[in-house]
Amino acid sequence: MTLDQGTTSSRAILFNKKGQIVSKKQIEFKQYYPNPGWVEHDPEEIWFSQKSALEQVINNIDAKQIVAIAITNQRETTFIWDRTTGEPIYPAIVWQCRRTAGYCEKLKARGLESYINSTTGLTIDAYFSATKIRWILDNVDGAREKARGGRLCFGTADSWLLWKLTGGKVHATDYSNASRTMIYDINKFCWDDRLLEEFDIPKSILPEVLDTSGLFGMAEIKGRQIPIMAMVGDQQAALFGQTCFEPGEIKNTYGTGCFLLCNTGKQKKTSRTGLLSTIAWRIKDEICYAMEGSVFNAGSAIQWLRDEMNLINKASDCDTEAGKVKDSGGVYFVPAFTGLGAPYWDMHTRGTMFGITRGTSKQHIVRAVLDSIAFQSKDIIEAMKSDLDLPLKSIYADGGACACNTIMQFQADILGIQVYRPKNIESTALGGAFMAGLASSFWVDKESLRDVRETDKIFYPEIEDDMRTKLYSKWQKSIECAMLWKD
Q: What pLDDT score does 487 carry?
């Protein structure tokens, strides 16, 4: 069973040996926006939603049938809680939150970008955990004193759930999540003392870092102790779930954000174009790195259409509405609600729309929003091709938004390559299950997992090169214009 703790919902999914979903429950939780550009979650609400999803999935199942549990999670989102009481000292600061953008600019001005990049594989950005930790310690009364006294715990969502599931017995994370904090040395595999000093973060609040696949602790379910056998960041889990085990294999997850990862094997590859180096996983002491490009707003732009603009009633309406027009009618939408991620890394740009005429309809706007998801992914693919000199022939898609045929077809069109969509688009949860299953001998080896993953549909490019170039050129112009609009 995978506990998939995401940005907008918590899910529990039970898989059988064929990789098929036996039972599934998803529970959404509230998003908090206390100030412009700020995003928060209630840690207790996350725990309640995840616990409720778990309980509903196993309601009619004998707990003895569950061999192992995996935890996959939204990364970078920062939780700090009291080690004694187990109570959070502040809401979780979400990976999308921009409140520390100004502090990040000061770090860049002091010349720390090169050291942080070479040590952690990341760029200086409010996206990552380190500046969020510092903000909480600086802004919550008594927090820094408690931290220095060893009374606080920091963790991303995986650590928080592990703590709760084990009754406060285990405070740990894995290599994939540690590598997203901006304070972890992905070359030496340790918390970096210089960065801890820079951010004034006591080492005592940090979790132990364990192999991604292996025993983390025991969770009591229906009176039975069930081993937690894997913890992995959601995007690395999706890479594993898509069975991208060899260097050069690429997946793109279309979720709240859009995250494209390429397996680079045992060697860390350094980007020249603004992409990130990260740890994909460590299993049985064997490391695997990935190169990553992160889009901050993808599925969240569809939520915006539904919840704020009321242009659709449900996410699945996107295909219907977009299908009523042949294209976006010249409308370009840049969904920089919380800045731009890779390869631009601009924390201050905000969302913009271009090319609106009197004839622009809601269908054109819906289509422009869907197109923006594919355009942002192309930005990353182009950067990755430059960095790795890869003969890119196809990508593997997953995540909720990949169910949208309009996005998938335009993705194939604008990239000029094939896009594979699996029958089971829950690649993140499946990847976590694969890792837990390997650790518990539920599955024999990695190669046997390739037979479990099945393809639903292959999308082939349907436009000519000159049209592809024209469309992408206008997108790049839209990005340039959007970046002129700053807070």
A: 63
